[in-house]
Amino acid sequence: MTTARTPRPGQQSSTRDNKFTNAGAAAGGFVGGMASGFVPPINVTVNNNKKTVPGARVHTESLLPAPEFTSPAQIRNYCNTLRAAAVSLSFEVAMGAEILKAVLATVPDPEGRMGGSKIRAFKVARKLQRSADELRNAAKLAAATYAQFAQEYEGELNAHRARGSRPQQPRMTWGQQ
To answer: Among residues of the chain, what percentage have pLDDT more than 90?
Structure first.
């Protein structure tokens, strides 16, 4: 049970107003109640780049690993990562193209032509669909890059594999008789 307080001069005595004042203050978006005004939240982002090494490549937000091709494993990893990223992006872009086409088809044609809005939407979304097709093509070419590398440098790869995978020959130890 709430008790009624005596209002201050210039203040209403309604408990309903107090309830909303307290709710607004608790939410943090209102200062002093509903009638005082709205204060938007402020986010401050500070980027400190003073600790970087001069000439070093900062690449933290990349989808791909650093292009350091010093071993066949790094070449394979780069091509596989590129392929996977391109396939994933191609699906997202293709879905975006379909959504764009559906949204733009709802905009009425200014000339009132029958099916005009769908034709205009198709023309616009076709460009985005082509970019999805090119991303899919980039995925194919990334896989083909490693296949071509393996084919062109087969001799070097096989020489390394043969040398590294030889089993140890048992040695004759003449001291044990």
So the answer is: 34
- Structure token pair of residue 19: 């309830």
* Bridge partners (DSSP) listed for residue 38: 30
Rounded alpha-carbon distances, angstroms, from residue 117 to 107, 113, 130, 144, 160: 6, 8, 20, 40, 62
Cα(96)–Cα(39) distance, rounded to whole angstroms?
35
Helix (H/G/I), strand (E/B), else coil: 48: coil
Q: What is the pLDDT of residue 162?
A: 62
Q: What are phi and psi of 83, to 5 degrees?
A: -60, -50
Q: Six-digit token pair at 114?
A: 């029958």
Whether 120 contacts 109, CB under 8 Å = yes
pTM as predicted: 0.54
At 86, phi and psi to the nearest 5?
A: -65, -40
